[in-house]
Design brief:
Mean pLDDT: 87
CATH topology of the largest domain: Rossmann fold
Structural class: alpha/beta
Strand order of the largest sheet: 1-2-3-12-11-4-5-7-6-10
Order of helices and strands: EEEEHEHEEEEHHHHHEHEHEHH
Largest sheet: 10 strands, mixed
CATH superfamily of the largest domain: Vaccinia Virus protein VP39
Number of strands: 12
Low-confidence stretches: 1-10, 350-355
Number of helices: 11
Helix content: 25-40%
CATH class of the largest domain: Alpha Beta
C-alpha cells in the first residue's frame, strides 16, 4: 500500500514491515515501541548525502534521534549503534546522558583486503584501519522514589526490602532459596544478579504480608501495585546465545553477490565518477551480521526499528526472522530499493526464526535487489 503524505510517502503492510520515505523524526511517535533499535546513521566520513564531514558534528546530528529513542523505549529495549571507532566514542557521552547504558562493543574485522584504495598521506602513518564497530546499549532501568530520588535497579531492589523493616536474611525464606536472595539479588557488590520475575514477585508478597505498614506496596514501579513476575521479566532484554561467536566478527568487505552495484549514482559526496562496478550504497552491511544482531536480543513478533534504513538490511533480517520492522530512509532511490528488498524478503521468509541470510540473499539476488 502506498499512502501519500506531505512531504513524503509511506509504504506500509500490516505485517511484517512499515517503510517511511522521509525524515524519520516525522514518524517516531507513530511507530510501535521498539524491542531493539539498529542505528546505522552518520559516521562522520561523508558516507552518504547528509553525513557529517568528521566526528565533530555527530552529537548534534544524533541528539534529536537519541531523544526520540529514549522516549519510545522502556527498560529492556536495546540499541545497536554502528559507527567508526572515533564516531561512536564521540556520541557515547550523549547516549549515556540520555539514559542508555553501555553493554559491549562488537568489532567488524574486514581484513587486509579493506586497505586497498584507502591509503593517503595521513593514513599511511598509522596501522591500517580495517574495522567498524557496533556498540550495544540497553535502556537504563531507573526508579524514581516518592522523594524524587532516582535509584538504579540494583539499589532499588535492596532499598525496597530494607524499607520493609525485615532483616535481609528473610529474603531467602521469601524466595525459597538457601542464600541466593542475599548473595545475588539484594547484594550491594559487583556480584549482583538481575533476579527472575518470580523471585521479585515472591519478595514483594512477603514484604506486603510481613513488613512495616507504609501506605505503598512494596516493589511497586507505579506506586499502586507490586510488580508482577511477567512485568519484571520484560524489564530485561532477552539474550539468545550463539556458541562460538565472540565480539570480533571476521568477514571481508562486501564484494560478493550480496553487494548491490550499478546504480550509476553518486551514492555519497566522495563518489565522483560512479561506474557499473560502484556500490549502490557505500555502507551496506552483511545480512549475516544484521540477522545476528536481531536474533540475539529479540523474540519472534518483536518490533525492530531501523531509523536510517539505507538498503534496509537490518529490517530485511528482522522480517526474515519473524520480527516486525519499522524503517525509514530519506533518499528516494535507496527507499525504493529497500521497499523491494523488504517485500521479497517477506515473501521468501519461511519458518522463522530458522531462516538464514544465505537463503534470503539468494532469493534477493535472483530478482536483482
Amino acid at each position: 500500500m502506498i499512502r501519500k503524505l506531505t512531504p513524503a510517502w509511506v509504504v506500509a503492510t500490516p505485517d511484517p514491515f512499515t517503510l517511511h520515505h522521509g525524515d524519520v523524526r516525522e514518524v517516531y511517535a507513530e511507530w510501535e515501541p521498539p524491542s531493539t533499535i539498529i542505528s546505522d546513521g552518520a559516521y562522520g566520513v561523508r558516507g552518504f548525502h547528509g553525513d557529517t564531514t568528521d566526528a565533530a558534528g555527530l552529537v548534534d546530528w544524533y541528539r534529536d534521534h537519541i531523544s526520540a529513542w529514549t522516549t519510545a523505549s522502556r527498560p529492556g529495549t536495546t540499541l545497536w549503534f554502528w559507527g567508526t571507532e572515533v564516531g561512536w566514542a564521540t556520541v557515547h557521552a550523549e547516549l549515556d546522558c540520555q539514559g542508555w547504558d553501555y553493554v559491549q562493543t562488537v568489532i567488524w574485522d574486514k581484513g587486509i583486503a579493506h586497505i586497498a584504495g584507502n591509503v593517503n598521506g595521513k593514513t599511511i602513518r598509522q596501522f591500517p584501519v580495517v574495522t567498524e564497530v557496533c556498540a550495544l546499549y540497553q535502556r537504563r532501568f531507573e526508579v524514581e522514589l516518592d522523594d524524587g530520588e532516582t535509584l538504579g535497579v540494583q539499589d532499588w531492589l535492596r532499598h525496597e526490602w530494607m524499607r520493609s523493616g525485615l532483616p535481609l536474611y528473610l529474603s531467602n525464606e521469601a524466595c525459597g532459596v538457601r542464600n541466593a536472595a542475599t548473595r545475588k539479588y539484594l547484594t550491594k557488590d559487583w556480584l549482583w544478579y538481575f533476579p527472575p520475575g518470580a523471585m521479585v514477585e515472591r519478595m514483594a508478597a512477603y514484604c506486603n504480608a510481613n513488613g512495616l505498614e507504609s501506605g505503598r506496596p512494596y516493589f511497586s514501579l507505579d506506586g499502586k501495585k507490586s510488580v508482577s513476575a511477567d512485568e519484571w521479566d520484560r524489564m530485561r532484554y532477552p539474550w539468545t546465545h550463539t556458541h562460538g561467536v565472540t565480539n570480533v566478527w571476521r568477514r571481508g568487505p562486501l564484494h560478493d553477490s550480496e553487494r548491490l552495484k550499478g546504480s550509476m549514482r553518486r551514492a555519497a559526496p566522495r563518489v565522483y565518477k560512479p561506474t557499473k562496478a560502484s556500490p549502490t550504497h557505500l555502507n551496506q552491511k552483511p545480512l549475516e551480521f544484521m540477522e545476528r544482531l536481531v536474533h540475539a536480543v529479540t523474540r519472534e513478533g518483536d518490533v525492530v526499528w531501523e531509523p536510517f534504513g539505507g538498503l534496509a538490511s537490518a529490517s530485511v533480517a528482522a522480517v526474515a526472522l519473524g520480527r516486525r520492522a519499522y524503517v525509514a530512509e530519506i533518499d528516494p532511490h535507496f527507499a525504493e530499493i529497500a521497499r523491494e528488498r523488504l517485500y521479497f524478503a517477506s515473501k521468501v521468509s519461511t519458518n522463522p526464526p530458522k531462516s538464514n541470510p544465505d537463503a534470503i540473499n539468494s532469493a534477493l539476488d535472483k530478482i536483482g535487489v
